[in-house]
């Protein structure tokens, strides 16, 4: 059976070592079923999951740490934990829910461990997307000088107030606003009921609206 070489170039060097199934077949399979293939020793399944989820997980981690190198490292650790958990994996929840739960826990732990090193600019919820170049919260039209200053002031305020949100609210906003996850998915990650998740997000957005009234 093939083995996984765990090193800093995991994503670049990972090769399909076994082909119990053709890689194309994985596209027709549920993620949980692919994990069960990996559990049975099919390394091609792991390669497929990395290709499918690497970019979303890196983006998710980047939104939390605002450091591309750290985001890449944390994403690698997410997938290493997936691999290490292959033999004990149980398809009791959606694979993506389980994956984001691992990512969330790693991101929260990193934030706690490095809190004294971070400044108010650590989280940029409103920063332009690295792929599309668009900014979610502000129109793309070129502003005049006054509008540009107001925009920058607004962005700084958003950063400050998002950082000030309670931990779970902050994570829920990240998943809801930037990962496009619904209430049930977020609740599964945070181990909350759907109604509790709705309440959590309502409080988070209400807090942000109240704090940002001057910019509305």
TrEMBL record:
Domain RNA polymerase sigma factor 70 region 4 type: 157-208
InterPro entries: RNA_pol_sigma-70-like (IPR039425), RNA_pol_sigma-70_dom (IPR014284), RNA_pol_sigma70_ECF_CS (IPR000838), RNA_pol_sigma70_r2 (IPR007627), RNA_pol_sigma70_r4_t2 (IPR013249), RNA_pol_sigma_r2 (IPR013325), RNA_pol_sigma_r3/r4-like (IPR013324), WH-like_DNA-bd_sf (IPR036388)
Species: Tunturiibacter gelidiferens
GO annotation, biological process: DNA-templated transcription initiation
Family: Belongs to the sigma-70 factor family. ECF subfamily.
Record keywords: DNA-binding, Sigma factor, Transcription, Transcription regulation
GO molecular function: DNA binding; sigma factor activity
Protein name (record): RNA polymerase sigma factor
PANTHER family referenced in this protein's UniProt entry, alphabetically: RNA POLYMERASE ECF-TYPE SIGMA FACTO, RNA POLYMERASE SIGMA FACTOR HI_1459-RELATED
Statement: the UniProt record of this protein carries the keyword Metal-binding: no
Domain RNA polymerase sigma-70 region positions: 49-115
CDD domains xref list: Sigma70_r4
Pfam families: Sigma70_r2 (PF04542), Sigma70_r4_2 (PF08281)
């Amino acid at each position: 059976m093939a083995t996984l070489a765990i090193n800093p170039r995991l994503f670049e060097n990972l090769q399909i070592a076994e082909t119990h199934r053709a890689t194309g077949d994985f596209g027709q399979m549920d993620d949980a079923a692919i994990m069960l293939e990996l559990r049975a020793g099919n390394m091609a399944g792991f390669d497929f999951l990395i290709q499918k989820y690497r970019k979303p997980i890196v983006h998710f981690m980047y939104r939390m740490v605002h450091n591309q190198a750290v985001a890449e490292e944390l994403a690698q650790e997410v997938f290493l934990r997936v691999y290490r958990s292959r033999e004990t994996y149980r398809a009791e929840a959606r694979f993506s829910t389980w994956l984001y739960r691992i990512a969330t826990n790693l991101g929260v732990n990193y934030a706690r461990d490095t809190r004294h090193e971070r400044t108010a600019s650590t989280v940029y919820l409103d920063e332009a997307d690295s792929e599309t170049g668009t900014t979610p919260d502000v129109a793309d039209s070129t502003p005049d000088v006054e509008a540009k200053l107001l925009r920058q002031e607004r962005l700084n305020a958003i950063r400050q107030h998002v950082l000030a949100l309670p931990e779970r609210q902050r994570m829920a906003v990240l998943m809801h606003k930037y990962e496009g996850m619904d209430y049930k998915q977020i609740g599964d990650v945070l181990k909350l009921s759907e109604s509790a998740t709705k309440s959590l997000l309502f409080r988070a957005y209400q807090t942000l609206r109240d704090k940002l009234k001057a910019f509305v």
